[in-house]
Design goal:
By secondary structure, the chain is of the alpha+beta class. It has 2 domains: 172 residues, no CATH class; 96 residues, Roll (Pdz3 Domain), CATH 2.30.42.10. Helices cover 51% and strands 22% of the residues. Helix 1 crosses helix 3, helix 1 crosses helix 7 and helix 6 packs across helix 8. The chain is elongated, with a radius of gyration of 26 Å. The two termini are 31 Å apart.
Amino acid sequence: METLLAFLFVLSVLVFVHEYGHYWVAIKNGVKVEAFSIGFGPELFGWQDKKGTRWKVSLIPLGGYVKMFGDMNPASAGHRDDIDAEEAKYAFHHKGVGARAAIVFAGPLANFIFAIVVFTVLFAAVGQQRALPVVGKVLVNSPAAAAGLMTDDRITGIDGQTVEWFSELSEIVRAHPAEVLALSVLREGDTLALSVTPEAVEAEEGGSNQTFGRLGITAGAFETSRDGVIDSVRRAFETSYTLTSQTFAAIGEMISGDRDSSELGGPIRIAQMSGEVAEGGLGPLLFFMGYLSISLGLINLMPVPVLDGGHLVFYAVEAIRGKPLGAKAQEYGFRIGAGLVFSLIIFATWNDLTQLGVFSFLKGLAG
């Protein structure tokens, strides 16, 4: 039950943010919004505001939509032809191509803004647990053991550089495989000078084999650190950029075959992960929501009809041609896009069920 509630909370917040981006820019451009729904299917409950928008929560909590005046359906695929000149002022499809593009782009943009705000709050108010350069476990026959490092040793300097965090220590060690490094170690109040030669380890990174240094120790102490507002905003942008780059890289590796497509997860895996991170507290949950918000924004920007990116492609073509694509071309585009999205959902769900061992379980029952 806790996993389900965490999933519904995370997904509902992210869907609301995305759809509110569409809604807010639509209202600012004079478009009447008929419905704002969290979820699809039959309405569970809702209310009507003074502007005529029906705000509602629907039965199937796997997305949402904003239906604008003049649309044939919530996906804005097609528009009504029975609108008079007065009503056209408030219809989405009668707005200029720039206004329509802004309304469509606002959804993904809202997801990116939300992620930056969430990360800023995380870094400034909640803080992050960071590992201190204190030795936890020393692996047997490791370079650290050979150098005489012991549990609870605090490494204050390496190769002439002061270190405050375990991550800084790790970066220096990784960059100097098979090289002698000088360590400054604090042990029970005494400062010791030790020498260590990190083991050279080969691993695949970025599609090629790389050689890294390894000491053979784990972190033995942690501290929750908080940044100032300015540093938090900077780190929030950096984190968002890093996650975006990693997502593009992962998609590219899946397409090229360098990455296993079984890593692609769907609603079931998101639900499972929501429950797991919720157990870890507010910090992990916020980071997870920020990561998912970026992912949702990127997915919607894919140039696939039905998604926001597909609409933007149509509008770009319209801006270049001076007129929109024909109704038949758009209809076929939306059909193909819907098929692609539906196939992707099925594939991701199949991966989820496979990872959970559902098919193995059923095969065992059949046997």
